[in-house]
Amino acid sequence: MRSASYMMFFVFLLFCSYLKQASGQESAGWSKSFDVDFTMTQNSYSDNWAGGEAGSINWVANAFGTFEKQISTKFNFKNNSKLSFGQTHIQRQVTSGNKTTKYWSKPEKSTDLIDIENLGRFTLSKIIDPYVALRLETQFLDAAVPSINRFFSPLKITESAGLAKIFFAKDSDSQSSANELLGRVGFALRQIITKEVKDTLLEKTKTSTTTDGGIESVIDIKLQLSKIVGFVSKISFYNAIFFSGADKYKGTPRQDYWKTIDINLENRFTVSVAKYLTVSLYTQLLYDKEINLRGRFKQTLAVGLTYKLL
Question: Which of 88, 135, 231, 259 has its CA at a distance of 20 to 30 angstroms from the CA of residue 188?
């Protein structure tokens, strides 16, 4: 688990270095930003420390990027990328006889996300624009079974097409702007590829794929509230019309779960306290009845070093 975690962090840094090099190349016409932040807290105690406190190390690395270009008068391309990886190390306490020893346990994953979306809009100077989109969602490491490293699983690929509209933007054209609200609705096709563990002793896995299709609705909001305060939000709704694994659940209480609307609400506030110091609050609300009957909530509040690669 530890070696795999180090490799994930190395891949994360390598990707960021590549983008830094690419920023020095010809990029006329591109509106681009790529921010990297790193947060860490640490405390530890000697073996003879009284009180029962446990030491810990918590670290999280995040990267958020946006790349947009009006390729021609009739086509706009935009890429949004989110990468996150973090771990928690706990100092455990073991008592044997009259001797108490503290040791560091193996790190546990605290956050893990890869979310890359490409959006192409056909800017026809009409009220609404046709669009096509491709989104990839996964994680660096599936740590559900610690003894087996399953990279980039599950992998969700969403292809969609439909109609989009910019409801407001700072500029009058369709270029990227500091303030923007973009809505779109269309038909989407999803493939979910999962590496399932079949034998933990032999470390055997099996790749399974499910496919579904349905109606997708997405709202993207980007606001620069002041020189130091920014807000980004993404609200996604998905209602499946067909599902390749429906027969598996026929006759069970779960047979219609896949027909329920999936919801994904993400919000991110950032406050630039100083040149390289940022406070960020990220929240995510997920509802997918196939995974859990209740909504799932994630919240991350971080104060850490931030560097703008682009």
Answer: 231
